[in-house]
Amino acid sequence: MADNHNLLLRANLKQLKLPAMAAEFEKLAREAATANEGYEQYLLRLTEVEVNARASNAVQARIRAADFPVVKDFDTFDFTAVPALSKPKVLELARGEWIEQRSNTCFIGSPGTGKTHLAIALGLAACRQGKRVQFWTAGALVTQLEAAQKQYQLDRLLAQLDRIDLLICDELGYLSFSRAGAELLFQVFADRYERRSLLVTSNLAFSDWGNIFQGERMTAALLDRLTHRCQIFEMNSESFRFRESMKNKKGKKTD
Ligand code: ADP
Ligand code: MG
After folding, report:
1. Which ligand minimizes its atom distance to the CA of 110?
2. Quick one: pLDDT at residue 243?
3. How many angstroms separate the first and last alpha carbons of the chain?
4. In what order do the strands lie in the sheet with 197-202?
């Protein structure tokens, strides 16, 4: 009889799309019986299981949608390797208030200093806080914008980008763009001004951005908007990658 009830209950929960409850109700019922819990308490516990599972699935879905190249978090970031970087300031950003305030963050510095690592870690933190995030390299974003324009799909892509709470634009400055490409990127940045957040990483100092955006006027206009409300981190330490590989080499020599 109990078996029959359980089968029916499982079928109902499945139809109602409550898979976590379906998976857990028997175990929780046994625990409730042992602990002498009331019906409401049992139901509360059971619904909590579903609520938690949904929240965790939503975070996973946002992380997938963000399209990070790899998953890197703060736990593997060695702040002592970048003494110029304020750890409290970075961890403050991980709380995500800057995204609610629609302000920006820039990591500027030479290659291998952890800019992408921190951008991903901040993006992950935002995903966990329920924010929509997308990670792009500047080159890929410009290519996508140009392709969308050719296919008369630019408005659609811009609307899609507009729904993103935090747009990460990594590696600005590694590649220079065509004039048209730079204008499209400028449009994305300008559209977000005071409405949505941007996180930009670049190996170039702001004074060299004219080379990417071709033209002093566009560069000045862009920097004006980007940096108006922006936390800027300069990370010009020695390359972490380089340092690690030197450490490994030294380690091998002394073996
Ligand atoms: P950048 O984007 O500045 O060129 P990355 O973030 O790609 O540098 O860092 C290069 C590699 O070194 C990555 O694997 C990254 O995880 C690692 N790395 C860089 N800085 C640190 C650090 N301070 N602590 C731990 N790993 C780091
Ligand atoms: Mg990088």
Report:
1. 1
2. 66
3. 70
4. 133-137, 166-172, 197-202, 104-108, 230-234
Spatial CA neighbour of 122 closest among 131, 112, 110: 131
* Residue 239, pLDDT above cutoff 60: yes
Residue 200 contacts by C-beta under 8 Å, 6 or more apart in sequence? 104, 105, 106, 107, 168, 169, 170, 172, 226
Q: Which of 240, 245, 247 to mutate to test the pocket of ligand 1 (most atoms within 8 A of CB)?
A: 240
Contact (CB, 8 A) for 204 and 78: no
List of residues 6+ apart from 63 with CB closer than 8 A = 71, 124, 127
Confidence check: pLDDT of 48 > 70: yes
C-alpha to C-alpha distance for 12 and 71, rounded to whole angstroms: 38
The answer to whether the Cα torsion of 197, 200, 205, 207 is positive or negative is: negative
Atom 7 (ligand 1): residue with closest C-alpha? Answer: 116
pLDDT digits (tens, 9 = 90+) for 172-220: 988 888 889 999 999 999 999 999 999 999 999 998 888 888 778 888 9
Give the pLDDT confidence score for residue 175 in this predicted structure.
83
Instruction: Quickly state the pLDDT bin for 254 (edges 50, 70, 90).
Output: very low
69 CB within 6 A, ligand 1: no
